[in-house]
Amino acid sequence: MALKGIKVVEFAGLAPGPFAGLVLADNGATVFRIDKPFQSSSSDILCRNKRSLAINPKIPSGLDVLKKVVASSDVLIDPFRPGVMERLGLGPVVFLGENGKVGLNEKLIYARIVGFPRTGSHKDMAGHDINYLALSGILSMLPGSHNRPTFPLNLLADFAGGGLLCTLGIILALFERNSSGRGQVVNVDMVSGARYVSSFPLMHFLNPSTGTFAAKRGGNLLDGGAPFYNIYTCKDGAFMSVGCLEPQFFNTFIEHFIKALPSDFKQRYGWVPNSSTQFDRNTWPELKNFLELGFHTRTRDEWTAVFMDTDACAVPILTPEEASQMEESGQSVPLPHPRILSKMNGAAQVIDLVPIELPPGKHTEEILQELGLTDTEYQRLVQDGAIEGTRSKL
């Protein structure tokens, strides 16, 4: 696998850090999650193919061991607010060096994920995805009512702008290390990351002459304003998605839609859309009403059958359970993506979809043994309270 042999130290966190570690682990990296000792469970479910070392860096013996772990690693993922790792004695300077002082591991890729920009006015404040989206400018553009926007779970800032861009930064830094031989700091903040993955709508909004986001929220092609890019409720209460933006796709959609309506529907309604209706904004309210009433005449699965094998850009909105049945693995856990194929035989990489629970400290003894700690050193960690463990020999 592409990252086989790369060793990653991931300090336990929420959402973006664990996701970055998951992507690296899914592609062959060896990932150690650093947990607090004396915990019975973890909230991290993104722990596939990781191992857990539970150790306290606030205790000198624990800090010494952690420095050895990081000194022998390729990547460190720091999910904390600015300054936390420095106060622990594990900041970038310790490993990468500074001002001529040699670091413990100058080939280390030190990846830091924070919510707000590290030098901005909010840098020391707590926050979550919705807050980072709020400052990014993109939340104000997202669909919702005319009174307020809605937010897309915690996908845009935590996972796209945070975890995924952190992974990209790590890969780029590893690639650069091949030529320079040196590591570096990778800084990711989720406000900037959310803005970057939202480049398309933000750049259109800032250039209204393009017309794509020239109207107020809820009045544009992609934010719920267009009837032909929207969600509709069916007879059974389930939903269909419609996204026929291009004229040829709209023509296919409206042709199949009208043909599938009850024979007396057009007569009762008194108006029928055609190909010229699509971009006549004056008719959008009428078209939306026509589609809403029309979709109520059939169930979701019946409409699915109507549009199957066409270019109408109309497909059912599946539940998570239904969508999981379409996974190649046949399991509910999403498969790693993209699928990397072998040039020799076209075979996809094989991923072990292990359980989503990783008890803190499950691999502590195993990892410390691999690190070469003696029994005396191990016993000291236990006695100091730096790790939870038995007094058995390593």
UniProtKB/TrEMBL annotation:
GO MF annotation terms: catalytic activity
Sections of the chain in a coiled coil: none
Superkingdom of source: Eukaryota
InterPro entries to which the protein is assigned, alphabetical: CoA-transferase_III, CoA-Trfase_fam_III, CoA-Trfase_III_dom3_sf, CoA-Trfase_III_dom_1_sf
Family designation: Belongs to the CoA-transferase III family.
Protein name per UniProt: CoA-transferase family III domain-containing protein
